[in-house]
Design a protein that fits this description.
Methane Monooxygenase Hydroxylase, Chain G, domain 1, two-stranded antiparallel sheet, two-stranded antiparallel ribbon, 4 strands
Length: 179
C-alpha cells in the first residue's frame, strides 16, 4: 500500500471527524502529497459556534468543550489509519505522520487548561469512525483517486454520502443519531 493510500485514510479520518464535530469544519484543500503523507486544514466553524451560542472568534479555542472537539478531530487521522490497517492487511498505520497533529493537540488542550494526555479523545475518535466506517472508506477512496480536493468538494461528498446512507435506512429503522 502506498503512502498516498495511507494518507487518504488519515485525511479522510480528519475530514469525517470535522464534518461530524460540534465546532469545527474543513476549511482548506486536502492534498495527499504534502510532506509525504497528506494535509488537511480544519478550523473553528463560525456557523457551528453561532448555533451553539459561543463566541465566533479565537477566544472559543480556550473553551474546554471546543478543545475536546478539536482533540477528537486531530486524533481521527491516526485512528483512521489504524482502523483501515485492521481491515486492509497491506496497510500499515504510520504514527510518525500524526506527530504534527499530536503537537497541535497537546498545545490546544493545554490552552484550554486540560490534560495533555489524549487517550480518551482517541477512543472517542475510534468510536465515531468505527460507526462511520462506510463513509470513511468511501471518502478515502475518493481522496485517493483525486490526490488533491477542495474543501467544498469534500463537504459536498460527505453530505451526499450521508444523505444517501439515510435514504437506504428501512422505514422501520431509526437513522443513526436520531434515536
Amino acid at each position: 500500500m502506498s503512502i498516498k493510500q495511507e494518507a487518504a485514510f488519515h485525511e479522510a479520518g480528519h475530514a469525517v471527524a470535522a464534518f461530524r464535530s460540534r465546532f469545527h469544519n474543513i476549511v482548506g484543500t486536502i492534498s495527499l502529497e504534502q510532506y509525504g503523507a497528506g494535509e488537511i486544514f480544519v478550523s473553528l466553524s463560525k456557523r457551528k459556534l453561532r448555533a451553539a451560542g459561543l463566541p465566533v472568534d479565537e477566544s472559543s479555542e480556550a473553551i474546554k468543550e471546543v478543545a475536546v472537539d478539536l482533540a477528537v478531530v486531530l486524533c481521527a487521522g491516526l485512528v483512521a489509519e489504524r482502523l483501515a490497517a485492521e481491515r486492509i492487511v497491506t496497510l500499515r498505520a504510520n504514527p510518525a505522520c500524526a506527530e504534527p497533529d499530536h503537537t497541535l493537540l497537546r498545545n490546544q488542550l493545554s490552552k484550554a487548561g486540560l490534560s495533555r494526555h489524549f487517550d480518551r479523545h482517541e477512543e472517542t475518535a475510534r468510536n465515531l469512525l468505527s460507526l462511520e466506517w462506510p463513509l470513511l472508506n468511501s471518502l478515502a477512496s475518493y481522496l485517493y483517486s483525486k490526490v488533491t480536493v477542495e474543501p467544498t468538494d469534500v463537504i459536498a461528498f460527505l453530505e451526499q454520502a450521508s444523505n444517501a446512507a439515510l435514504t437506504q435506512v428501512a422505514p422501520h429503522e431509526t437513522p443513526p443519531g436520531e434515536g
